[in-house]
Specification:
Strand content: 25-35%
Shape: globular
Number of helices: 13
Oligomer: single chain
Number of domains: 2
Distance between the termini: 33 Å
Radius of gyration: 20 Å
CATH class of the largest domain: Alpha Beta
């Protein structure tokens, strides 16, 4: 039996707690600053819950006594303090952050932490699974040319001008829309402008747009530096969304008023559990003297987990973190210190009891003529690799 503390009992933290508890391999304690949030959870009578000020590092250290790992499912700006507490308590650390500054802070903490601990930020969907998948596909090429990652969490039934519903952290969403975007252009690392480089595409007869957002690449720019001509990440939305967001952020200058923008979004945009997560990964490069392309496209839908409805963004994010944590505690991830998501083995991830949700909740649409893919991930010998890109 392994012992895990989860801090943050929101949409993702509660699903992480449920997944781990129902596996019968983990004793879970779930903490949050809001007692009412804890009491509302259906899992509250199955796991130990406690109220805690997650800015109090001393109290966190006390709570982590005897634990194997701590998971931060809190807003990104709280993660550095939780990571410091993990280092002081001598437990490994996992989080879901997309924030680049926070990830760099966790990396610094990992350098001075006691030996034998793992610090694994960015364990969600993007960054997270999309980086694991992309890095795996890159390994089939002798020389890389382009790596393009596209991910979006969308309402299945959009009904407003933004063609959008809130499905996860509003502050995290605003952070992605406002911060600079890591990329590689013409072989050089660059900082892209958020909401720019708009593209349009169709998938299974549905039109979408994509544009720059921050954080989705995780540490891939660092890993693929000097190995690829083009590397970028863009968020998928329904057409028209980007122009309206640019009006709010740039013309109305709400990019300087994040608190006000959050208030507006949460007042006017409904949340939904009827969502869909779309991921589209395309790698181009040379193999056996030919320029080839491999693509992986997925749609992830809501499901019922242990009798409770769970949205697509909840299961895709929570399952990814649980898989990485489970692989570490079962010895499938042997390294210590700072973990890049692309260092996780895709085969082990997809075979993991939590990673399998990606296969079970995914509709393989790689053969769609709109995607124009000649390969599916399942068609490739997952044990045969051509190049090493790590």
């Amino acid at each position: 039996m392994k012992y895990v503390t989860i801090l943050g009992a929101g949409q993702i933290g509660s699903v992480i707690a449920s997944l781990l508890h129902q596996s019968d391999s983990y004793t879970v304690q779930l903490g949050d600053i809001d007692a009412q949030s804890l009491n509302r959870l259906s899992i509250s009578n199955l796991v130990n819950t406690f109220v805690i000020d997650v800015t109090d590092e001393v109290e966190i250290v006390k709570r982590l006594e005897g634990q194997d790992c701590v998971v931060s499912a809190c807003p990104y700006w709280l993660n550095s303090g939780i990571a410091r507490a993990a280092a002081k308590a001598g437990v490994s650390y996992f989080d879901l952050t997309e924030d680049i500054t926070t990830t760099n802070a966790v990396r610094s903490i990992a350098k001075t932490a006691p030996d034998g601990l793992l610090f694994a930020p960015q364990c969600g969907l993007a960054p997270g699974f999309i980086g694991i998948l992309a890095h795996h596909l890159c390994s089939y090429f002798e020389q890389l040319d382009e790596v393009k990652l596209r991910v979006g969490a969308l309402p299945q039934y959009p009904s407003n001008a933004l063609m959008y519903n809130l499905t996860w952290s509003t502050r995290g969403l605003i952070n992605e829309y406002c911060n600079s975007c890591d990329a590689i252009q013409n072989g050089q690392r660059v900082q892209g402008v958020p909401l720019e480089e708009l593209e349009n595409f169709s998938l299974n007869g549905i039109s979408y747009e994509t544009f720059n957002t921050s954080g989705g690449l995780g540490t891939l720019c660092e890993t693929l530096a000097e190995k690829v001509r083009t590397l970028n990440y863009k968020t998928i939305r329904y057409p028209g969304h980007c122009d309206l967001i640019k009006f709010l952020l740039n013309d109305l200058r709400l990019n300087k008023r994040h608190d006000l923008l959050q208030e507006i979004f949460e007042h006017a945009i409904p949340i939904t559990q009827q969502d869909v997560v779309i991921s589209f990964c395309t790698i181009t490069g040379w193999r056996d003297g030919r320029l080839e392309q491999v693509s992986d496209a997925r749609k992830i839908y809501p499901l019922t987990l242990h009798g409770e409805p769970v949205s697509a963004i909840q299961i895709s994010t929570a399952a990814s973190l649980c898989a990485v944590l489970d692989m570490y505690l079962s010895g499938k991830i042997s390294q210590t210190g700072f973990l890049k998501q692309e260092q996780v083995d895709l085969k082990h991830f997809l075979c993991n009891r939590f990673g399998r949700y990606y296969a079970e909740a995914s509709e393989d649409i790689s053969n769609s003529p709109k995607v124009q893919s000649n390969y599916k991930t399942s068609d490739i010998d997952i044990n045969k690799k051509v190049a090493t890109v790590a």
